[in-house]
Fold:
Amino acid sequence: MQGAWCKEWKQGRNFILKIEPGQNIVERLQIFARQENVKNAVIDSAIGSVKHVHFRGIKSGAKRPITEPRMRQHHVEGPLEMLGLEGNLITDDKGNADCHLHILISKSSGEVLGGHLYDAEVFVSCEILLTEMIVHGVERYVSKTAGTPTIFINEE
Amino acid sequence: MQGAWCKEWKQGRNFILKIEPGQNIVERLQIFARQENVKNAVIDSAIGSVKHVHFRGIKSGAKRPITEPRMRQHHVEGPLEMLGLEGNLITDDKGNADCHLHILISKSSGEVLGGHLYDAEVFVSCEILLTEMIVHGVERYVSKTAGTPTIFINEE
Amino acid sequence: MQGAWCKEWKQGRNFILKIEPGQNIVERLQIFARQENVKNAVIDSAIGSVKHVHFRGIKSGAKRPITEPRMRQHHVEGPLEMLGLEGNLITDDKGNADCHLHILISKSSGEVLGGHLYDAEVFVSCEILLTEMIVHGVERYVSKTAGTPTIFINEE
Structure:
């Protein structure tokens, strides 16, 4: 498809995952994927509350590829409500499920912050619903033109 | 699973729900769940516009459990765009579907607010897509250590 | 259903769609829908990074219907992280899939903006997962009382 790549996938297993207070979300998602042998998945829904949130944004006016000096990292102590965790787990070039997640968090003022998630610790609750994707010819690895890990879709 | 609880679920029915202007979203979701006999569900997607939004955030530096003095409540008159409504409906200890929802709303300035939703009134539109979850051994009730209603997963 | 309209739908095909840098998201979603003959779909998940984001919010205190003077449009140059793209594609009165999407974007400060999306250009990546909805008696067209395109659900 010109200007885009597209592929069909089939739904595998559906999971509900509750992560314990004090645990790191991305780390636990990776352990979950290994234990359940999930190669690809989509986050259907994720809410809860978090602490020690480490994420990044892209600097205004930045050019491609996205390199360190073109990003700005944030460490927010919290706790904060986690309003959303959007993204997917896609197999990397070593055969592991690689997490690409963007987080949305709110301060007590109601103001919402967010960005590309490195990791965050569960404060009180973390309820994740996800669906396994059965698909072949889809992988994520670092793209030189993007500067970041990117999905590659083999259309056929 | 150490540090987390995990359970598989099966997809039941899929619904599209359009809530009428002037109606309260959480109240209508509860009525919908009772009428359709939905015990557990995940919000796949929800957008629209809202008024009289009542939500809360967690105060910076708060400790567990989350008690009233550690939260801050907000009442926003609006109207505002509803950019997302994330969360789930899980059976409570009385057998009803309990809503746990986090809302994302934007002001005309483009600034986004949000938090744990108590309720909000539909302004012009409210389009919710949800999927029934068929699962046993999952319940939500108040946890003493959390201070708030929490999902409990009986792994077996 | 009093105060709401509700209808069951069946899941059709599942797609992963990666949109190329420099392409417009809404325009590409419409081309995708035409090429794959998708009439209705729900966005399961969408993240990436964007430029030239054109969206709108509703002015505080606005009354229905939503007319031009009651909205405020924004053009944000970026690039910015795209934290979420919520919404659906529903058949319009000409038989095409009409996109209703709300976008969430973050500045390098971590501050989140968003609103009703007109369109946005992909900066580095755009990973969309969506599910086709098989449903009859659901259409979107302009409602006089709403002022905007609205879903109409024929409950029988």
In short: Chain A has a mean pLDDT of 96. The first strand of chain A starts at residue 4 and ends at 19. Helices of chain A lie at 25-36.
